[in-house]
Amino acid sequence: MNKVAIWMQALRPRTLPAAVGPIVLGQTLVAPDHFSWLTAILCLICALALQLAVNLANDLFDGLAGVDEHDRLGPTRALQAGLLSAGELRVGLMLMLGIAVATGLWLVIFGHWLLWVLGGLALLGVLGYSGGRRPYANLGLGEVAVWLFFGPVAVLGSLLAQQTPVYSEAIFAASLVGLPVAAILVVNNLRDRHTDARAGKLTLAVRLGPRATRWLFSILTLGPWLVSLPIGLAPWTWLAWGCIGLAALGLNVKLWRHDGSALNPVLGQTALYSLAMALWLGLGVGN
């Protein structure tokens, strides 16, 4: 593999729909007289940079902690496989964080002061998942953090960046959109539960066991779909809602029937599902 291919593998771009969806939803909820294309684009760049930083941080910190070994079931990790050094991953991580900070500063300066708080929490979230003395992934809080950052923080942060009022419907949508994104991590941790347990990484899947973890996935994927029933919308929206439901059911069938490396395709598919749910919520709440 050449360096470009190695970096693309380490960055894991297939996870990016998870970052795009909440930002797009947030922008659809902005009041028309407050909307700025520049702010919207900067919100998206900041979110994508943070997502890529998370991917590099996990590769780096899990590799240094010995979580990733030769029997890893997921996509190849660059540090564990010797494709990139720890120093190279640190440089990549700092670059992604630098982009996030640069775009975030613009949003803070021209947005709401609360973005200082949300931005600081986002940086801590990137570094604290698998890094530091007590990574919060080891405490079984990874899914909660993903819901928080890809739900309320991303969506309501978009409103604050555009200086538009935060209203109850936006809070409702923000609470829902983070759930299928958290389901992506559920799949990841279900697949890796044996190697994580061996390394002392006590994720929620390790704590709950496979059956309860699969039920959690079903709740996180089917729950938002059921709650967003298209009452009062045009007839064609029922077709769209039904298609999203079929996609959720298909994901659940795969998750309940497969395990180990066979779950790898479900990760990207769940990320795409989270994007579809974000677009659906934007259609229902934003209009």
TrEMBL record:
**The EC number(s) this enzyme carries:** 2.5.1.74
Q: Which InterPro entries match?
A: MenA (IPR004657), UbiA_prenyltransferase (IPR000537), UbiA_sf (IPR044878), UBIAD1 (IPR026046)
Q: Does the record carry Transmembrane helix as a key word?
A: yes
Protein name as catalogued: 1,4-dihydroxy-2-naphthoate octaprenyltransferase
**Which residue spans traverse the membrane?**
34-54, 89-107, 113-132, 144-164, 170-191, 212-232, 238-256, 263-283
Q: Spell out the reaction equation it catalyses.
A: an all-trans-polyprenyl diphosphate + 1,4-dihydroxy-2-naphthoate + H(+) = a 2-demethylmenaquinol + CO2 + diphosphate
Classification via Pfam families: UbiA (PF01040)
Q: Which domain of life is it from?
A: Bacteria
The coding gene here is menA
What role is this protein assigned?
A: Conversion of 1,4-dihydroxy-2-naphthoate (DHNA) to demethylmenaquinone (DMK).
Q: Cite the annotated pathway.
A: Quinol/quinone metabolism; menaquinone biosynthesis; menaquinol from 1,4-dihydroxy-2-naphthoate: step 1/2
Q: Where in the cell is it found?
A: Cell membrane; Membrane
Among the GO biological process terms of this entry, one is: vitamin K biosynthetic process
Does the UniProt entry include the keyword DNA damage? no
**GO MF assignments:** 1,4-dihydroxy-2-naphthoate polyprenyltransferase activity
Swiss-Prot/TrEMBL keywords: Cell membrane, Membrane, Menaquinone biosynthesis, Transferase, Transmembrane, Transmembrane helix
Q: Which family does it belong to?
A: Belongs to the MenA family. Type 1 subfamily.
- Mind telling me which GO cellular component terms the entry cites? plasma membrane
Q: What is its main location?
A: membrane
The way this protein sits in the membrane is described as:
Multi-pass membrane protein
